[in-house]
Amino acid sequence: YTTFFRSRHERGGLLDVGPHTLDLLDAALGTITDVVAARKGDHDVTHLVLTHENGVTSTASMSLAMPLDPGVVDVSLYGPSGKYSLPAPATPTSACYAALLDDLVTMVHSGQHEHRCDVTRGLHLQRLIDKAEKLISA
Fold this sequence. Notes:
This protein is α+β, with helices and mostly antiparallel strands. Helix content is about 45%, strand content about 25%. The strands form two sheets. A three-stranded antiparallel sheet has the order 1-2-3. It has a two-stranded antiparallel sheet with strand order 4-5. Helix 3 crosses helix 5.
């Protein structure tokens, strides 16, 4: 368990916060169909340019080595109508995890086998991260 988290941290923001970042952008802007990636420094800052199925593009920059509060997340959308910034989460992390566990327990008791955040979604996100890592190390 500790080795897993140490490995994620040593390999940079792409593996640590990348799945969450890609999940958010995929859900908000449409399915991500392509990724271009670049990295500055030794796993310091990773930059992604993402293409979504509807033709929209998005960018993401991730780092675990910035001298900032590690909880800093800034998501802004720009389009023909102007700019929209996603507000900071109001729900504590512990409440989010409790909601996920509640969903799991409900699924187990009801016999339900499908969820919007199932293994298929995880595999989609992992494929994007894998492609980004391959582009960075090429």
